[in-house]
Amino acid sequence: MAKEKKGVRLDHISKIYKDPKTGKEFYAVKDTSLEIEPGTFVTLLGPSGCGKTTTLRMIAGFESPDEGEIYLGNEAINELTPNKRDTAMVFQSYALLPHYNIFDNVAYGLKLRKMPKDVIKEKVTKILKLVELEGMESRMTNQLSGGQQQRVALARALVIEPSVLLFDEPLSNLDAKLRVQMRTEIRRIQQEVGITAIYVTHDQSEAMAISDKIIIMNKGVVAQMGTPQEIYYHPVDEFVADFIGEANFLRGPMVGKDGKYAVLDVEGNKTRVEYSDKMKEGENYTVVLRPEAATLADEGGLPCTVVLSCFMGSYQNYHVKVGNSLVKLEEKNPKNKKIYNVGDKCHLVFDAESVHVL
User: What is the maximal distance between C-alpha atoms in the chain?
Assistant: First the structure.
């Protein structure tokens, strides 16, 4: 269904706003360069105010960059109005036409393009089948559930066959179970159509579930871009590690090597971690330890004291103190494992391969 696939390139894009309280100018997005490959699903992820929505709106044409150029394929699009760009946006609020039925909502963009009626009917019928709303053409949008309304909004964006589909937090108005269902549907449809998709969310699990690449933004700049696995297992800094999933940070100087591993002194106890050629003996390093990558044992590893022990069904949730450092961990499938209680002395155990040195 899709035309030639096009990617998106941002070339040193900046957007400057004025703070209404102080009157001072600030960068909402600063000197950002990105390459989004054709046919990929890329998510802009970050906390409120990080610049992700501003970036999306600049690609859509609702905001103009103050510096830099945006390219769709090989075409510079800064000067093009939103309706002249080969993009379509799915909004958080759905933005459906309340007095129109499903068919007319989806057909709206095609009618604006003055397409023949038979072509419109064929395209709308095809796209409603794709989003699993066939047979509901005459139903009014106010009779639909949130998930169905989101499907109509998606169909309306897809039916005009844009090269790039833009999503502005499209699932934030849905309940948790429906969000999971709809993100799976959006990913299925994107892969089936083969369209380039750029998706804004602050939900980390949503980004992990649907993305080929995740772009993490912080204070107007790109902190890291990579696959979900790269960002989770190899974050570039503490902000990224802490933002994507749960992270513990252990700190200490490198005191030597043990085979292919570095040895760190963490709170007066030696532990092995991954080694890189950039590491130097005597210098301090921070290690990222994910909660699921550690376990508790009677011996070995780092001595610790349990300060929280909570049964969560599929896992036992522990907080332990290693010296002055608090470490959170999840002991999966705890049914036949020893359960440690608050106040117990034990040891925090993890493989050197399961930690990442920043």
Answer: 77
